[in-house]
Fold Phosphatidylserine synthase.
Amino acid sequence: IHIHFNDFSSLQKLLMSSSLSLYSVFLSRRAHTVTVLFILTCALVYVTLLEETPQDTAYNTKRGIVASILVFLCFGVTQAKDGPFTRPHPAYWRFWLCVTVVYELFLIFILFQTVHDGRQFMKYIDPKLGVPLPERDYGGNCLIYDPGNTTDPFHNIWDKMDGFVPAHFLGWYIKTLMIRDWWMCMIISVMFEFLEYSLEHQLPNFSECWWDHWIMDVLVCNGLGIYCGMKTLAWLSMKPYQWQGLWNIPTYKGKIKRIAFQFTPYSWVKFEWKPASNLRRWLAVLGIIFMFLLAELNTFYLKFVLWMPPEHYLVLLRLVFFVNVGGVAMREIYDFMDDPKFHKKLGQQAWLVAAITVTEFLIVVKYDPNTIMLPIPFFITQCWLLGIFLIFTWTLWRFFIRDITLRYKETRRRKQEAPADRDRPLGNGNTAAPSGRSKLNGSSDTLRQRKA
């Protein structure tokens, strides 16, 4: 076919039309099960008939495991159950659901190994692993302005400005989009700093300066991330959601804008946790905060017990994994809490994330029980016991003592109002008769007055 272009605009329109045609396939909700099955079969036929199998047992074992995982992912992307999210495409979230299953199975495999074999198994993933690494201590000299260093008196601040500063900001920005509540985000942020104070005798990198805890982390990185996240949530809640088919939009500018909005939510649900509304929601919110803090701690303890450096790509991949599955899990938890009659069971992604968090903690306990069982300083134990006692006391007062007191006052008020209603004078100056007929119909004089 010969196509003649008179000017550059014709070529530009053709390229735009072809790219939009390809993207329309992505916008479609079809699972393409037959297409994926055909491509998978062709790949397996090629490996079986056309490719020569290397004579390397370790290489073939790795390749077989990877191929098995890819086949499972292909099955899950096309056949797994859809979750609450549909943008940018349901297959994207089905893919991360299958990745969650694979990661949980990997954790179970590591849990059933000995400590030595489990650490050495990491060498199959990266030969640089399996070697004990020293932890970096962020404490030490905590002077903001060091007069002893004439060349750079603010060197302590610049030393703390590493790659984890933007990671803190981005992490809390995404967590705010997951939780969608300012108070819960701030409570988790502050509580994690208290956990670092409490556990710095176990992990050296928990030892930080006071200004690193409260100024750089809580106020600057975490606070700024939460603020930007709440602004994004406000924009998403006010944004009109009027979806239109790609080919129904007349202009190319509108089509490009529609493609960009494909990566925004299909609809918006505002999370109203209301933890003090009833005991069930209060315990659920406490459980969510506890699991969030445990998942945060697992990040540090896992790399400590499995001998992974903080900058290793596996640590980054784990964070990327939780970024993609955490939002779905939080939405499923909220639906299960807010409408238990319609959502009768916990969502699949939330179930898997909870299982992963617990399995990671069990790996930490098995691989290094000595670090976990190090005695906590006495004054820290006193602080935590005081906090737990205050939470228990408030729960007991709010959901038991307060309700009993209110019911007793309401019953007493009704008893006091009942005699007053019986003694209230009627229209002719007489008091109400205590008979049943008088209580229901009033006196005969009042009845005759109404008839007149």
In short: Residues 375-413 form one domain.
